[in-house]
Every structure is written in C-alpha cells, then in structure tokens.
Amino acid sequence: MQKQTPNQLFQRLSDTVELLDNSSKQLMKIMEDQIDAIIASDTLKVDALTEAHTSLSWYYKEHEKQFIYELTNLLNEASRGEVENVRLTTLKEYFPEKHAEVDHWYEVISENTKELQRKHKQVLELLEFAMKQNANLMHRMYSKHSEKDTRYQPSGQRSDVATGVAVNQEI
Fold first, then answer.
1. Rounded to an integer, what distance in angstroms lies between the CA atom of residue 24 and that of residue 14?
2. Exposed e or buried b for every residue in 66-103, given b needs 16+ CB within 10 A?
3. Is there a contact between 27 and 123 (Cβ–Cβ < 8 Å)?
4. How far from chain centre, in Å, is Cα 29?
5. What is the pLDDT of residue 31?
6. How would you write 73-98 as a 3-class SS string?
7. Which end of the chain is more exposed for a tag (fewer CB within 10 A), N or C?
8. How do the domains of the chain map onto residue ranges?
9. Could you give the CA distance from residue 136 to residue 142 in angstroms, rounded to a whole number?
10. Is this model's pTM higher than 0.85 or not?
11. pLDDT one-digit tens code per residue, 6-53
C-alpha cells in the first residue's frame, strides 16, 4: 500500500468524524423513539428499538475505534514519530491552517457525546420508573385480590389460611 500524505490522512480523519457524527445522530433518534415508546408503554416498539439501538451502538463503537486509529496515524505521521498524548486538539499544533476545522470536529464530537449520555440517562430513568410503577401496580392488584378472598373462621375471626391451602389443617 502506498504511503499516504498528511493531507490524505487528514481527509480520512475528516471522513471518520463525519461517520461518527452520523452514527451519533442515528443513535440519538433511536433513543428519542425509545423514550416515546416507553412513555406510550408500547413494549413491541421498545423491543424493536432496543434491537436497533444495540446494532447502532456497535457501529458507533467501531467508528470511535476508527477515529482513534486515524487520529493516531495522522499525529504519528505529522510528528514523524510516536505521539504519547493522542488528542484531537493536538492536531492544531501540526496543522495550524486547519485550526477551525479541528475546533469544529471537537465541538461536534463533544456535543454529541454529551447528548448521547443525557439521552441514555433519560432512557434508563424512564425504564426504572416503569419497572417501579409496574411493581407497585402488581402489589396493589394482588393486595386487592387478597382482600376479596379473605376467609373467616366460624367464630367470625379473620382466618390466616388462604384459599386452597387448607389441606391438612383443621378449619
């Protein structure tokens, strides 16, 4: 394979940032749909969106790895050696003419990461809330059922023996 110039490597990194940005936006859209489905209690849609989220998360992680790989290659090529501190902002030292583009990438990636974290937290909180509400509902339903099925002894006192549990007990 022919050795690439720093400008070609820079373009590859630019393409990778675009892929990462697109993956982030797709994940955010899926999470918004998940939030709507959770609120609507649409379990089928939640399941389908969870599958889509899992798949997109895998692609997002692959794009992150590719971004780190491309950034490392570009920094190593630009510095003509091994760079210990692989950071996006370090590119500005080697490519001062691309300062604005690097700043834009940094802003886009940072904002997307914050938004993904916020949406992920929101999905988890909604799922937690839904589970608690479901548990409370089940508890109330069974409590009401138990009240209706209360048994009394011949003396009029409440019996601790539940329906169908009187086997081998004196009633």
1. 15
2. bbeebbeebbebbeeeebeeeebebbbebbeebeebbe
3. no
4. 11
5. 95
6. HHHHHHHCCCCCCCCHHHHHHHCHHH
7. N
8. 6-150
9. 10
10. no
11. 888 889 999 999 999 999 999 999 999 999 998 888 889 999 999 999
